[in-house]
Structure formats: structure tokens, C-alpha cells
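Late entry, written up from scratch paper. The run itself happened at the end of the previous shift, but nothing got recorded in the book at the time, so transcribing now.
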Amino acid sequence: MAKKRAVISVSDKTGVVEFAAGLVSRGFQLISTGGTYKALQEAGVDVTYVSEITGFPEILDGRVKTLHPKIHGGILAMDTDEHRAQCKEAGIDLIDIVCVNLYPFRETIAKEHVTFEEAIENIDIGGPTMVRSAAKNHSRVTIVVNPANYGEILESLKENGSVPLVLRKRLAAEAFAHTAEYDRLIAGYLEKQIDAETFFPNNLRMFAGKIQDLRYGENPGQKGAFYADPEAGKGTLAYGQQLQGKELSYNNWMDMDAAWEIVCEYEDTACVIIKHTNPCGAALGRTVLEAYERALDADPISAYGGIIAVNRVIDKDTANALKGKFYEVIVAPGFSPAAKEILAVKVNLRLFAVGREEGTKTRGWKIRTVNGGFLVQEEDKGTTPVSEWKIVSVKKPTEDDLSQLEFVWKTCKHVKSNAIVVAKNNQILGVGAGQMNRVGSAKIALEQAGEKIKDGYMASDAFFPFPDSVELAHEFGIKAIVQPGGSIRDKEVIEAADRLGIILVATGRRHFKH
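Output as recorded:
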């Protein structure tokens, strides 16, 4: 019986020595190249250099090593009498396992000041060719591109003497996904070299790895799943860690995203409480506990069953306060050991640590589906600096007024349009979200705040089409309003503010959120 053979040539050498040794112990002859050959040889693993198989040296600075009939014939030959006869005539021995992962192109182009020439030399040619050949011929050949599969393959060989077809088929699908993502990265990089200013590619190529299946989508009749973008920073929400609690749902993820986006707007200690992607409470505080208690005080009824996010580590005092309430998820950069111990008694409460120290880079896009297509837009990051705001009213704001307006403005940009938010002393007191007319949103927000909003502040995500919202704000004692401006009736709106003695500020930037 002919000896089984395996080609091993990997960039990521995690676990490769152990995997190779396991194959040798199961009777495999190993064939390898370059750095992998050296690593195996130095580890004392019996390995044959590829040139001894092909009878042809590496050429063109290593660009050609495995592109040879004695390698690809051995991989692509099917288990038929005709193919075996042709291989025997050509002196080609069959190859049973191909273990290959590719030059680190993603890591190379992520380096600062990487040259175009360096990037090009990290485009793997022989590797993808072997991967695709083996994956195509998975009826006979096992292809492995992920070190996480080494153990399962060795166990199958130990139990069965071979790798079962169902596993080979699964590994083949993973292999084609591996090369597809590799080509996507290269295509995107080259397009950027042609036009560095292009923000949206001509072809929307995306790859995302499934993190988990969800219990269901927005409703029990819909399926759901969560995927992570490999181009996102490890300090983003998608790469956070669930520390305890029930499995996260589709709606949990939506609300967590809304909550995290808001608290990340603030440098000071902040807390936000989300219901159905809108804030029912948000506040700043000198401590995490104070920020939480002030956010809760805004609307304690709506906070029931909500999602909480803070931009500081949850400490012991805050955990004790949270323990007595019902919430679905708490999102934070982290949790102190004491806080984790206190909250552990609430076994269904999901604790989610984001981290943030490893970078918060995102792709910079927001993508939504429409019937038969996709809408892609730039993320609505940041807003107009306070220093560039225009004071359009006769009455002028103090520095404290501007600080309060900035707080309410930053929260308002994350509320569903038409959005009106009112606040006082860095505490949200009322929110009008998703209404069909702006004065309706203003009425909801102001009535929710009630008498507490006297001498407070209002934000509107878009201009006022009529003076009615300003007039309503005056009835509740609003001191100052921030809004983008730009209405054809701006003059009427400004005149109303001046007549009523309200400070009116225009940012020049709208923040619709649909």
C-alpha cells in the first residue's frame, strides 16, 4: 500500500509542529517549503523539501515552489483507475492532505508606511492554487486552512484511519471562503491604489464571520444570526465578551449598539439607558454610580427591562445599585471583580465587556438592506464643534449654556427622527422620538419632563419647519435650543425665539436617524 502524503506550507504556524508530528505518527510522509520546512526540521519532525519531490529548485526569489505537476497532479488526481494510471506513468504520487494558509496580506497592508512593492510580494500564488486544488478534489483530499481544525483531523485519523467525507466537504467550503476573502482584500487594496479618494468601492465585497445564531430575529417568526467584521478593531462592540447571562438576542444587539454609540460620544463619565434603540435616560456624573442614578431618574418606568451602557468600568457601588433592578444587558468597558461577584446572583442578566483598549476602528460604513439591494452610507461620526456653532438669537449663551447644549445635542443625534430631546444639568429629562411631525416630538419630550425642565435645554436633530416647537418650548420654560438651522422659515423661527427670550443656536449639521 502506498504511503500517505501531506503537503504542509503555512504562514500561521500555530500548532503546526504538533499537527505535523501527529501525521508522521500516523504514517504520513510530509512535504514542505521554506519557513515551514525549517520549523518542522528544527522541531525534529521528519519532513521532505518540495524540491526533492519535484526535482526542480525554487526559482524567481521563491515565487515558484509548488507550481509543478508532481504537486498539483498529486492533489488533483481523482480516485479512478484512469487517473492512477496517468499518475503512475508520470511518476506522480498522490497527496492526501494539504495544510496551507496564506501569506499575511491583511497584516502587511495594515502596517504603517507599507510600500506597494511589499504588499505585492505578500500576494500568495502557490498557496491559493494548492488550497483550491485540494478543495475541488475534496472527494479524496483533505484541505485544512485553519489551525483550529488540526485536532479534529488527527482524531479522525486515529479513530478511522481516514478523514470522513462529511468533514472533508466542510473543510473544502472553509477553504474556498479563505481564498475568497484573500482575493477580496487584494482587490480592495489595488482599487485604493488606483483611486485613494474612493470611499465606496464599485463592487461591495464583504466578508464577516458568524459569531452565533440568535434565538430569533426581531420577532419569534424570524431567524437571526450575528456576524463580526474582520476589519473592525478588537475594541469594538462586535468583539466584546459576554461575561454572564442568557444568550444575546437580535434586539439585544440593536439596543446595545445604540447605547454604546451614545456613551462613546462623551469623555466625561456617562450612562445611558436604552429601550427600543432610543434613550429613555442619559446623564453625566462625577462617578459611575451618580451617572447611572441620574440616567435612571429621567424615566424609571421606561428603564424597566432596558439596556444600560456606561463608558467606565462598573464598580462595586454601581453593581449594588444595578442589582435591585431588572435590566436585559449591561455594557461597559469592563467590570471590577467585586462588581462581577455582586451581579453574578442575577444569572439571566447579561454582562458585556467591550474593552476599548485594543482600538475602536470600524469600516466607516452603515449598511442596510432594501427590497432587492443595499443602501450604504458613511457613519454619522462626530458633529459640528461648539466653536463653529452660530448664535442666531439676540440673547447670547454663557459657557455653561453651551456646555449643556452640547450634552443634549450629542444625545439627540442618536434618537430616531423626528427627534427632540430636553435636558438640564447634564441629565436627559424627556425624549420625543420617531414622530411624524416635529412639534409632536417636542410635545412628548416636554410633557415627559414636566416642571423639571424649567430653565432647561432642548435639541432638535433637524431644523424647525415652523415656529410652533419654539413656542411650545417657551410654555415649558426652556432657556436655550440647539438645532441645525437651514429652514426656509429660519427668520420666523429666530424671530419667535427673540420674542420669547430664548437662546437659539444653529450647528449647521443635521443628524437624522432613520
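The mean pLDDT is 90.
(Scratch paper discarded after transcription.)
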